[in-house]
Amino acid sequence: MAGELLLTSSLEECVFIRPRELAAMQAAGMASVRDLLFMLPRRYEDRRMFDRYDSLSSGVPVCLRGRVVDVGWKGWGGRGGKGRGRYVEAVLADEQSLGQARFSCLWFSMPGVARMLCAGQEMIVYGRMKPYGKKLSMVHPDFEIIREGDEQSIHLNRIVPVYGGRMGIAVRRLREIVWETLSRLSPAPEPEVYEFVPDTPCKTALRDLHFPETAEARDRARRRFALEECLAQQLNVAYRRRRADEMPGMRTAGSSHLVKDLADSLPFELTEAQKRCVREIYRDMKAPRSMNRLLQGDVGSGKTLVALCAMLLAVEHGYSAVMMAPTQILAEQHYLKFRQMLDKLDVPVSLVTADRKEESHVSFGKQGGIVVGTHALLYGKNVPERVGLVVIDEQHKFGVNQREKLIDREERPDVLVMTATPIPRTLTLTFYGELDVSILDGVPGGRGAVVTAIRTEKDKGKVLAFVRNQLEEGRQIYVVSPLIDGEDSRKGKAVTKEWDEWKALLPHVDVGLLHGRMSSEEKEAVMKDFRSNRISVLVSTTVVEVGVDVPNATVMVVEDADRFGLSQLHQLRGRVGRGAQESWCFLMAEPNERLTTLCGTNDGFEIARKDLELRGPGEFLGTVQHGAGFLSGLAADGRLLAETQQCMRELRQNPNYHQEYEQVLAQAQQRFAARLPRFSRRCSASGE
Fold first, then answer.
1. Reported pTM
2. For helices 303-316 and 272-286, what crossing angle results, to 10°?
3. pLDDT for 42
4. Tally of helices (H runs) and strands (E runs) in the chain
5. Which of 76, 255, 267, 557 has the fewest CB atoms nearer than 10 Å to its CB?
6. How far apart are CA 103 and CA 496, in angstroms?
């Protein structure tokens, strides 16, 4: 067929794409037909049968078809009738409903909509019906105007893909471009395109992905590409594992006298899980190859103490150890705690942040020392030359490039990355397969239980009474809000406003304020006062999410708790219950499935599994931390991961494995570079 396209064809060969559209696609990073066809539909609308307005309930996303009977400006406003409080309202008659029920669609601050609509037009609208005034209305719905001839077009009477409008190209036009591209796609195999999952040819699956005949065909296509992406992730891991095994290392541990001295000086005994993890790290550091280990544990499981033991192993062997923390508050807390714990061991400890550099009274001698810092460790001469161990705290808070900059040295140090965000075992193997994993599955003794409860706005008085009772007993309180200012009230309560309210509610109590825009001196002063109990109530943003340790704090109130992810709420809850007293976490929000899950368990691994199920896995290896790609919503499926492992085994059993492995690596780099940045960079650097 003349004008046939290949997946590897340039977008310039698509003569049906207009110049302005081509420029927009190229600006969005699209260069080939493959790039275009791997643009996922944001959702699908089944336009073979529409919802009926007379059978709807509030808050449910629906797709309706109706005829415009009236459109115009409503509400009140200033000059020109289009000021504050004005909105465009279109009244539609739903011909699918009994008696042709009417419903309204509202658009605020969108005058262009009024120019696009007129009475008599047929429309498809998608959105949620919500109470507005005395009736249910659709506010800011997605909409598409039905044109003459659409009954026989790709826009009606089928399952229709809906794409995001990030390129400035109308959804309807994008659908036409993708359809035309698929119709001109050559069915012949392409030697330059590796079929990751040969049972279902890629081109067939792409047609089902964009324009499926049935919902089952769509789901099969999504699963097929999810398997492909999962396989690419595994290839990425296998590549990095091979590179790590080939990396020359150095023995960074000899004896363990300092660790024993530290353990003897503590007023408590290490848990069995902590002892096991220290032994695993010790074996790695004594070996000639570089250590690459993930220390994974739940909130409050004692990861920092294990990391300190690892750093002492390096220090005793004459190396320096570096710990990078995601926030200045956490770095300063580690620094102060390490100085206190190591005071009698004569181990030098230094602090490096963006605007502060501080050293303990012990100077660096023949033995190494410990340097604790933030991103400032990445710049200048803030890191000693002879580094034997790099510890990265809360590793998911750092970008891939940042981690590599600290690790990539002439003599590659041992690496220990820590996370308090538990990850289900299947995903740990999938995304961290190049790392050896140590799991802290115990909690140090002497910790009080944490009770978690959901409270609505009408319960605020009872929560306040409980807080006052705790304050009378000498305890301290956290109040967490999602915003700093009131710049967007739709996204939650502002911490500055909450601070004013809590000061008014508790006039005889010192109420502190903490957020990310404060200077480091201000933040340090507030935290110092809170640790010493000069501040009884700390109103804060999520800067207290990780690492902050105040055993006397027994209550946390999380405002607009439904604005946070499950794992983040679990992290926040971990700020209380660090002493021997029973503690409480109040989630201020309307009940929902996520919050109920949090109330039902303190097991971080179970919470992570549920969070994965609800939000998708995100980009564990890249820079995006929310659900994305074909894996979103599918990676929690153990069968999918089992299929991936089977594909990997079959690939290794292939007699042409090494040749195909390189081909698959190149294909994975091309297709998944945006989601696997570390992989693409390293392949390019190594020439593989």
1. 0.64
2. 30
3. 86
4. 21, 22
5. 267
6. 40
User: Rounded to an integer, what distance in angstroms lies between the CA atom of residue 467 and that of residue 364?
Assistant: 47
- pLDDT band at residue 20 under the 50/70/90 scheme: very high
Instruction: Tell me how far the alpha carbon of residue 439 is from its chain's centroid.
Output: 21
The alpha carbon of 502 is separated from its chain's Cα centroid by a whole number of angstroms, namely 31
Tell me the percentage of the chain whose pLDDT exceeds 90: 26
Q: Rounded to whole angstroms, what are the CA distances from 219 to 213, 595, 634?
A: 11, 29, 11
Q: Cβ(673)–Cβ(619) under 8 Å? A: no
Q: 263-274 b/e with 16+ CB inside 10 Å = b?
A: beeeeeebbebb
Which stretches within 562-637 are classed as H helix?
566-573, 593-600, 604-615
- Whole-angstrom Cα distance, residue 63 to residue 668? 37
308: amino acid identity, one letter: L
Distance from C-alpha of 401 to C-alpha of 399, rounded to nearest angstrom: 5
The closest of 131, 145, 142, 75 to 103, measured between CA atoms, is 131
Structure tokens at 612: 């994965």
- State yes or no: pLDDT of 492 exceeds 80: no
For 431-453, what is each residue's pLDDT tens digit?
666 678 888 876 776 677 889 99
Reduced to 3 states (helix: H, G, I; strand: E, B; else coil), residue 136 is strand
Q: Which residues of 382-410 are buried (b: 16+ CB within 10 A; e: fewer)?
A: bbbeebbbbbbbbbbbbebeebeebbeee
Return the closest-CA partner of residue 299 out of 232, 373, 394.
394
**Token output for 646:** 């089977």
Place of tokens 């493959």: 34
- In eight-state DSSP terms, residue 10 is B
Query: Two tokens at 376?
Result: 């400032």
pLDDT at 682 over 60: no
DSSP state of 538: E
Mean pLDDT for the chain overall: 80
| Helices assigned H by DSSP within 165-271 | 171-183, 202-210, 215-246, 257-265
Q: What is the mean pLDDT of residues 496-509?
A: 92
